[in-house]
Design goal:
four-stranded antiparallel β-sheet, rod-shaped, 4 strands, 15 helices, alpha+beta, 64% helix
């Protein structure tokens, strides 16, 4: 409901000759409300503030901003701030950035900071960085004042088998040109960790790493780990190195245990084969004894037949028994 429709529904007739104090006060209130509504649609105060600040923007344009659901105060204050800082801003560009869900104030502050620090940054680039989800003002501040990132503990093993746990501090500066599409801090930390592992792993001894920790920094910096990221690595400082486990000894112990298990398995296999061969020999011996016993059963029959035919005499029989007794005696002595 606008101001004119409000007047049309008021059942009040104003007559100068027959006016009462109450009706006069009521008309003053209605006029005041109408003036407030009129000033809200036509921000004369804001337009005058922009005018005296050197910002050339028409009153009609401010009214049209309200119809486009763009707060004129945000655009005007951004332009006033930028103009006082010596920047030339386009209100249409600011309005378009606001409609694109951008942060107009942060973009203008970033442009002012970049201009004071002699960092090449235009509105188009700043708006793109802001719409990409990055804080462009913080990025400009990081370009002026580099940021220190502490890496998590990185574990690596030297060639002598000693485990080392290193912590590094990476000093980075924002790369304005790579903020759109560039990798973030996680990628930088991952690459630095990979470089530390590679540097320690190529060392002949862990003692050389402990004596010269700066060798890790030199090797890592040469690899250009900041390529394709939103940052520029200025320095990598090794903050702390701790000695971990003796991985080489642990691996040797594990290998020895594995060899022992293999040897035990092979010995057990040979023992089982020997036991099986022994059992087989015993079976053959028992089979041979059975055959001997079977053959011995026929000896008396053969001797009787020899006696009948006269092929065996009594003296031959006695000598054979003596020989048999002598053989049994020797076997009994050998068993003892």
């Amino acid at each position: 409901m606008n101001f004119f429709s409000l007047l049309s529904i008021l059942p009040l007739q104003f007559d100068m000759a027959d006016s009462s104090p109450v009706s006069f006060i009521l008309w003053i209130a209605i006029g005041f409300v109408g003036l407030v509504v009129l000033l809200w649609f036509f921000p004369v105060t804001l337009w005058f503030q922009a005018l005296i600040s050197g910002v050339h923007i028409s009153l009609l344009q401010l009214v049209l901003m309200r119809w486009r659901k763009v707060p004129p105060t945000t655009i005007v204050m951004a332009m006033v701030t930028g103009t006082k800082a010596g920047l030339k801003l386009d209100p249409n560009a600011l309005e378009a950035h606001y409609l694109a869900r951008g942060n107009v104030s942060r973009v203008v502050m970033a442009l002012i900071s970049a201009d004071k620090a002699n960092i090449p940054l235009d509105f188009k680039m700043a708006a793109a960085i802001d719409l990409a989800g990055r804080d462009v003002f913080e990025a400009v501040q990081m370009s002026v004042n580099p940021k220190v990132i502490n890496t998590p503990p990185v574990t690596a093993v030297a060639k002598d088998g000693i485990q080392l746990i290193a912590k590094a501090r990476v000093t980075v500066r924002a790369n304005i040109k790579q903020l759109v599409g560039g990798a973030g801090e996680e990628t930088v930390l991952a690459r630095v960790g990979e470089g530390i592992v590679s540097s320690i792993g190529s060392a002949e001894s862990h003692k050389s790493v402990l004596e010269n920790p700066d060798s890790i920094s030199k090797v890592v910096l040469v690899k250009g780990l900041d390529a394709g990221t939103a940052f520029e690595i200025l320095s990598i400082d090794i903050a702390d190195i701790d000695i971990g486990k003796n991985i080489g000894a642990v691996l040797q112990i594990d290998q020895a245990n594995a060899d022992k298990s293999i040897a035990q398995a092979r010995a057990e296999e040979k023992r089982a084969m020997a036991v099986a061969l022994e059992q087989e020999m015993k079976a053959r011996a028992q089979e041979a004894r059975a055959k001997v016993i079977e053959a011995e059963k026929e000896v008396p029959l053969a001797m009787a037949d020899a006696f009948r035919k006269g092929n065996l005499g009594i003296m031959d029989y006695y000598r054979m028994n003596n020989m048999k007794a002598d053989t049994q005696m020797r076997e009994s002595i050998a068993e003892k």
